Task: inverse folding
């Protein structure tokens, strides 16, 4: 596994270009993106449909092939140029290092919520089966769905499904969470709640999150937001660092007592609104073009 | 294009269902979806009239119910309660899905975001297909008619290609050609530019504008705010309810949820011509938005007063006082015609502005420019 | 209104009504066993969609079952048929002789080459249950000592196996022929002089050896020698059943011993009328049975193939529906190998389920089929058992076939990238393989699609426009090319076999019809003693409806080889040379003439011994105990049973037999020629002649024996037809599955058509038209394929039954019926998917993912 150029940033994109061949000819979805994301950042990528924001996300998750450039992710003790890996290695690496949340939840319909969350742990073999299950229950507790643990996805609402998807993304305790329009198919109140969960993960869990959205009104809630248009980053706004990240749960091996973490998570989820609205942003704007 | 008559505001007034110029008349539309997790009311009693020749955009966030609203117009879905009359036809009462399909083929053209064309048919065959289903035009005339439609959208060169061989933008154009093939008076589009690059999107909107000029009624759902400037009318839907068009125009930068709150909580007040709406040096308790008519902002009452500004529909007043606190610095009275205004309480407004920094910023600018205007006038005086 | 999509989506999500999930909770296994989520997914894939699982399991089980039945039956029969035959010490040599006595038997027993020998008297007699009308002809076998029975052993089944004086024991086959007969009940016997004797039935036995080579033989009954007198028979023997001292399985040795024995007997003054040789360990009908089992085996293998294409289609669709799941699994860290193993496990589970169903059923079925055949051919099975080789074949088929059929879809499925899997871009057509290149865009269109578009354009240029909804049906047909190929394969095979079976049936009937030309007479009467032609003519013309009568001679002999050794029994019929009651089908030479002496026309089967035989050649034969050489004047087609057939003129043979102007056999023509009339006249004549004091042996409708042959052939045809219908059912199941999958994949397109104005009828029409187009293509292919199938099946069947290839005749009937059937099947197969398609509301369709 190549571990060249250990960089300071968690994620580094160097000259990422993505060209699609379509009927109408070649289409440049990304035209040389350079981007560095550090730990505990909450990065929003906004832009219109077709601007290339989802493509950019696909470059970071490695689900799509890169045309040229490099994506280096420096997590769990090693820098990896993910597009140099073969498909299976990417899958395994992704399972351990990246949690992905999509607009359409993508839960497996035949598995219960707790099974859906256990699945990544099963496939990557990071946790022992018994441990996995306890951990899955803890994660469900985190998203306040433990009483639905043995339900099938079809029997809970969209917002709840998305919370399960987030819990699943956290299964292997990855440092990075990537979300593609996670609130896109939810009504505004539910969407708010989901967004709160993400904010909580950054502030209290120390996760790094990259989220694609086309909802401009969310922009102020990111620690940094990028506007992408026609395959280029056209605008970048960086806000002051958020409240100190204090990752307390769920750390690997210290899943802790259920009660305590439940209480904790409930508190933090509830307490979120005040803390986030209390943060008045000091914006520093710099034009990249 | 403006409709020939002044129209009542959507969302609040109850319409006469038999309005002669109404293309679409929706009344009390409720749509509830049921699933295992419970019931979701997506449309919460929508009243909407769209007139012949209008080019309407419907805007809303994902999940706001805009596509569902559109589905109520196209008959693709059916409402839980309420009535939809299109071109004089009640499309739900006693009509089966199958009959609705036939009606749709003859009376409206539909353009979707994805999955437009049947992949196994060439473009021209796709266009002919809708005529085949609707049994419009003679069988032998259909190829010719289809080619005309393709010419209209500039695709005659590609008539005999399969959809996979043309770009998505061209596919979209072909879909519009198909929608026009049966010459329907109404065109309905759901995010027609949603997955197109900006150039192709422009071409599509140009075409819509052209069609609108030719007298077609067009209703388009989009979440791209930049497109709304090119339509004759913009309807915003938020959490299943329509936002008053005055509110959305007066405070365009607010979040939809807040616009909806204002729509719901604002008082509608009417004033006779020249009637005083706001006295000078009064405590201002509301933000005012002009729904109809125009108002004059005056330095004071009576004959000595001078007109500081002339405000038209969709302008707002009272914001300076609300933002900065204190009493009114000018007085406002109705213009030459009766005036209708929406008044929204101060405390709620401040809270909303608090949550919307961009609006605050924009209002700040308005306030600043108005204050400067005011000072200039005062100084002159 | 929401049912449509829910129903379709039950492919993916459990039904709400499912008791285990009604509240949304899944109770059960995980409470006791912690199953890894990936295996739980496999488990639920297996049990959640029961219809699909049933389809796959059934597809596999059909193949496993049919191959198991046939392989098992084959194995059981080929083993037990010989074993049970050999167990009853079958005679290697059977001699039909003129009456002889104990001394002759003793001399036979003293022959050093002979191990065991028994003498019996066999004669035919008519029997009925008292109080009933219809007579049945039995072959009565008289034994000296039942206790000392050593050859052609009788196996006791019911009651006594040893009759006392004036008692009778029946062979079990007689039960099928004599209605209402029971042990302990008396039977009435009609003697040649018309008198009636009564004897009680005291037991039922099975005789697997006597007459084993002729499944159309009359049933047997057994009495003791001291009963003969009561039945008006001489107390003498006329049959010898003997086994050779050694080499019982060497047919050449048996023949040698038999020929030597015969020579010796004849030298001592006995007359040997006919000989028959057989091996100890091979049932005389083994070849025929094996040929028929061979046909069944071929069909069984075909069904396995057909079912495997069904499996391939279903698994392909399953994997297609699961691409999104695979995408999710890969997204959260699943590797290709893990996905591969998961789905392989699923397929193996399908296989195991199918085996659980099909192996026991197949074992039962194999034994059932073997039992059916064994009872038809009168031999015993050695008892129910599992045939290890059939068991192994079943397991191999049950696991390997789905594995092979599913391997490609599983490999492709496990290879899919997350992006493609999640982008919803799944309904795409199969990858383009060749030709039809679009110059501008660089995207390749499959040549077949390209051709279709060109063709439509060409028609359009000539002003011929096909309505677009039908164009959709046509092009949809060819979109899933692999699936179409598999569907066409199953349906075409079913059709081709179906048509071929009809052709074979017609071919057989045609052949029988041609043979019927040798049996033009309406009634044939055989007497036990010769009568003058004139006398009989006078008598029978007194019976109403009799128009004409001919007396035929008959002489039996043997066909010899160059060295004078017996090759085969020879039956020489001698109708008047000018007879109108025989219309021979000559393949060479001419028919007999009145003044032909020592000249005859021989059947085609003779060519088996003398391949170069042509008219004008001479053949060595033995007739009436004399070796002679006769000239062949013509060769004709016929079915030979129990020896070769030849025709010589009455004029010569009657002189040769010293029976000028006399005959044993008479052939009559009646006013009407239908079977009931013939039967009626036959009975009337029988009664009339007996009352007039004639020794009537039997009187029956002219086509009676022919009809028996037709019946047995029809049984075979029905068997083939059942197999053909089975393949047709598998084929139409395949079509239904295909249409279901097609509709499922095209729900979105159906939504578009609804959105632009297609009503229910239009949607249904498009789907049904596609099914019918597939049906028609398969029909066209079946027409072509049915030709070689007809030849193949006809040849195998005719070789098995007639031991000669016969001319194939085609009939429009099979084609017409199959056309109707395939149209109906394809319409029906698409109606259900079409209805589902029409029920979908557009919102559901466009939201469908």
Result:
């Amino acid at each position: 596994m190549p571990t060249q150029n250990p960089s300071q940033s968690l994620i580094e994109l160097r000259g990422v270009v993505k060209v699609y061949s379509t009927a109408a000819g070649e289409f440049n979805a990304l035209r040389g993106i350079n981007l560095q994301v550090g730990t505990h950042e909450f990065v929003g990528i906004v832009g219109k449909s077709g601007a290339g924001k989802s493509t950019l996300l696909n470059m970071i998750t490695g689900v799509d092939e890169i045309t040229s450039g490099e994506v280096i992710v420096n997590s769990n003790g090693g820098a990896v140029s993910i597009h140099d890996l073969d498909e299976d290695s990417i899958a395994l690496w992704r399972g351990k290092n990246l949690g992905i949340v999509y607009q359409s939840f993508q839960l497996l319909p035949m598995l219960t919520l707790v099974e859906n969350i256990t699945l990544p742990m099963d496939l990557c073999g990071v946790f022992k089966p018994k441990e996995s299950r306890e951990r899955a229950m803890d994660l469900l507790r985190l998203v306040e769905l433990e009483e639905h643990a043995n339900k099938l996805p079809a029997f809970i609402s969209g917002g709840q499904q998305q919370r399960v998807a987030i819990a699943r993304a956290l299964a292997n305790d990855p440092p990075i969470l990537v979300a593609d329009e996670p609130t896109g198919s939810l009504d505004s109140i539910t969407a708010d709640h989901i967004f709160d969960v993400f904010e909580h993960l950054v502030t209290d869990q120390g996760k790094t999150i990259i989220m694609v959205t086309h909802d401009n009104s969310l922009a102020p809630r990111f620690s940094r937001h990028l506007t992408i248009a026609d395959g280029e980053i056209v605008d970048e706004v960086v806000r002051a660092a958020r409240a100190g990240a204090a990752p307390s749960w769920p750390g690997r091996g210290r899943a802790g007592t259920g009660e305590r973490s439940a209480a904790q998570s409930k508190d933090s989820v509830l307490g979120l609104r005040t803390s986030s609205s209390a943060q008045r942003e000091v914006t520093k704007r710099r034009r990249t073009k | 294009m403006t409709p020939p008559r002044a129209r009542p505001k959507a969302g609040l007034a109850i319409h006469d269902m038999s309005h002669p110029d109404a293309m679409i008349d929706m009344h009390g539309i409720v749509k509830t979806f049921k699933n295992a997790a419970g019931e979701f009311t997506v449309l919460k009693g929508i009243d909407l009239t769209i007139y012949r020749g209008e080019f309407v955009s419907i805007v809303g966030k994902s999940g706001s119910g805009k596509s569902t609203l559109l589905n109520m117009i196209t008959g693709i879905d059916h409402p839980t309660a309420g009535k939809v009359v299109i071109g004089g036809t009640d499309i739900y009462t006693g009509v089966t899905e199958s009959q609705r399909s036939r009606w749709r083929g003859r009376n409206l053209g539909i353009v979707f975001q994805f999955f437009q064309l049947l992949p196994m048919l060439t473009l021209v065959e796709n266009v002919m297909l809708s005529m085949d289903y609707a049994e419009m035009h003679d069988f032998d005339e259909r190829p010719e008619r289809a080619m005309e439609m393709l010419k209209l959208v500039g695709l005659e060169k590609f008539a005999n290609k399969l959809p996979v061989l043309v770009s998505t933008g061209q596919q979209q154009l072909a879909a519009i050609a198909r929608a026009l093939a049966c010459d329907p008076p109404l065109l309905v589009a759901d995010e027609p530019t949603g997955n197109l690059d900006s150039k192709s999107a422009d071409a599509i909107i140009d075409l819509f504008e052209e069609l609108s000029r030719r007298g077609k009624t067009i209703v388009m759902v989009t979440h791209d705010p930049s497109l709304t400037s090119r339509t004759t009318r913009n309807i915003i839907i938020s959490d299943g309810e329509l936002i008053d068009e005055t509110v959305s125009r007066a405070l365009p930068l607010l979040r939809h949820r807040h616009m909806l709150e204002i729509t719901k909580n604002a008082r509608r007040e009417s004033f006779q011509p020249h009637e005083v709406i706001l006295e000078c040096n009064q405590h201002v308790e509301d933000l005012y938005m002009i729904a109809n008519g125009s108002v004059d902002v005056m330095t004071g009452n009576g004959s000595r007063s001078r007109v500081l500004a002339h405000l038209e529909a969709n302008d707002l007043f009272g914001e300076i006082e609300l933002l900065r606190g204190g009493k009114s610095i000018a007085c406002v009275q109705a213009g030459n015609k009766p005036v209708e205004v929406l008044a929204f309480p101060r405390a709620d407004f401040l809270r909303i502005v608090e949550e919307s920094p961009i609006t605050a910023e924009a209002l700040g600018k308005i306030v600043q420019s108005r204050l400067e205007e005011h000072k200039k006038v005062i100084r002159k005086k | 209104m929401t049912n449509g999509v829910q129903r379709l989506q039950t492919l993916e999500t459990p039904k709400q009504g499912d008791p285990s999930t009604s509240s949304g909770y899944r109770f059960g296994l995980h409470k006791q066993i912690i199953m890894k989520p990936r295996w739980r997914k496999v488990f639920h894939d297996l049990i959640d969609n029961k219809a699909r699982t049933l389809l796959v399991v059934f597809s596999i089980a059909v193949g496993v079952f049919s191959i198991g039945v046939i392989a098992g039956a084959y194995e059981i029969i080929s083993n037990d048929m010989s074993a049970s035959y050999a167990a009853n010490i079958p005679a290697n040599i059977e001699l039909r002789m003129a009456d002889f006595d104990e001394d002759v038997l003793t001399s036979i027993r003293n022959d050093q080459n002979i191990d065991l020998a028994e003498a019996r008297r066999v004669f035919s007699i008519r029997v009925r249950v008292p109080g009933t009308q219809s007579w049945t002809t039995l072959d009565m076998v008289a034994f000296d000592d039942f206790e000392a029975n050593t050859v052609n052993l009788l196996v006791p089944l019911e009651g006594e196996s040893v009759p006392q004086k004036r008692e009778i024991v029946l062979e079990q086959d007689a039960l099928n022929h004599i209605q209402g007969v029971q042990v302990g009940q008396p039977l009435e016997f009609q003697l040649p002089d018309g008198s009636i004797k009564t004897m009680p039935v005291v037991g039922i036995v099975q005789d697997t050896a006597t007459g084993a080579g002729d499944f159309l033989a009359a049933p047997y009954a057994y009495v003791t020698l001291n009963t003969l007198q009561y039945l008006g028979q001489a107390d003498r023997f006329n049959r010898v059943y003997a086994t050779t001292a050694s080499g019982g399985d060497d047919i050449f040795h048996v023949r040698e011993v038999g020929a030597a024995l015969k020579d010796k007997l004849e030298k001592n003054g006995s007359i040997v009328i006919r000989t028959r040789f057989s091996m100890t360990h091979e049932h005389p009908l083994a070849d025929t049975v094996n040929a028929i089992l061979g046909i069944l085996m071929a069909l069984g293998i075909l069904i396995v193939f057909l079912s495997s294409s069904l499996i391939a289609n279903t698994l392909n669709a399953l994997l297609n529906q699961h691409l999104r799941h695979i995408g999710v699994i890969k997204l959260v860290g699943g590797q290709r190998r893990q996905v591969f193993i998961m789905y392989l496990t699923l397929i193996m589970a399908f296989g195991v389920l199918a085996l659980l169903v099909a192996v026991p059923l197949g074992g039962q079925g194999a034994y059932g089929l073997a039992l059916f055949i064994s009872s038809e051919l009168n031999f015993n099975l050695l008892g129910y058992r599992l045939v290890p080789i059939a068991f192994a074949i079943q397991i191999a088929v049950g696991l390997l076939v789905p594995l092979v059929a599913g391997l490609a879809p599983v490999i492709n499925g496990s290879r899919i990238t997350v992006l493609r899997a999640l982008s919803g871009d799944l309904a795409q057509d199969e990858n383009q393989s060749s030709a039809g290149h679009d110059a501008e865009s660089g995207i390749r269109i499959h040549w077949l699609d390209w051709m279709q578009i060109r063709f439509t354009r060409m028609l359009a240029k000539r002003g011929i426009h096909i309505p677009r909804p039908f164009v959709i049906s046509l092009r949809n047909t060819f979109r899933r090319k692999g699936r179409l190929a598999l569907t066409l394969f199953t349906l075409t095979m079913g059709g081709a076999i179906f048509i071929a079976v009809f052709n074979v049936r017609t071919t057989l009937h045609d052949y029988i019809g041609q043979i019927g030309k040798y049996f033009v007479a309406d009634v044939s009467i055989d007497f036990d003693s010769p009568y003058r032609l004139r006398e009989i003519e006078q008598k029978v013309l007194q019976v109403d409806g009799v128009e004409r009568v001919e007396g035929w001679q008959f002489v039996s002999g043997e066909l010899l080889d160059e060295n004078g050794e017996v090759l085969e029994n020879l039956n020489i019929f001698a109708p008047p040379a000018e007879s109108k009651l025989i219309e021979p089908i000559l393949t060479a030479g001419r028919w007999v003439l009145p003044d032909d002496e020592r000249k005859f026309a021989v059947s085609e089967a003779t060519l088996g011994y003398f391949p170069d035989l042509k008219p004008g050649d001479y053949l060595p034969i033995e007739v009436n105990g004399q070796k002679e050489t006769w000239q062949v004047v013509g060769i004709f087609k016929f079915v030979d049973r129990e020896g070769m057939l030849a025709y010589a003129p009455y004029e010569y043979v009657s002189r040769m037999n010293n029976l000028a102007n006399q005959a044993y056999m008479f052939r009559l023509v009646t006013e009407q020629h239908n079977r009931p009339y013939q039967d009626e006249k036959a009975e009337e004549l029988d009664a009339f002649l007996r009352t007039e004091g004639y020794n009537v042996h039997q009187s029956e409708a002219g086509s009676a024996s022919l009809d028996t042959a037709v019946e047995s052939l029809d049984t075979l045809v029905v068997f083939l037809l059942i197999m053909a219908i089975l393949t047709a059912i598998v084929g139409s199941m395949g079509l239904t599955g295909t249409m279901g999958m097609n509709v499922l994949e095209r729900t979105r397109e159906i939504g578009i058509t609804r959105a632009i104005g297609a009503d229910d009828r239009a949607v249904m029409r498009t789907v049904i038209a596609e099914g019918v187009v597939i049906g028609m293509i398969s029909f066209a292919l079946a027409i072509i394929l049915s030709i070689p199938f007809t030849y193949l099946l006809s040849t195998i069947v005719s070789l098995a039954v007639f031991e000669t290839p016969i001319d194939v005749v085609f009939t429009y009937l099979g084609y017409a019926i199959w056309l109707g059937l395939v149209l109906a099947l394809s319409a029906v197969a698409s109606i259900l998917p079409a209805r589902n398609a029409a029920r979908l509301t557009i919102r559901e369709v466009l939201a469908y993912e």
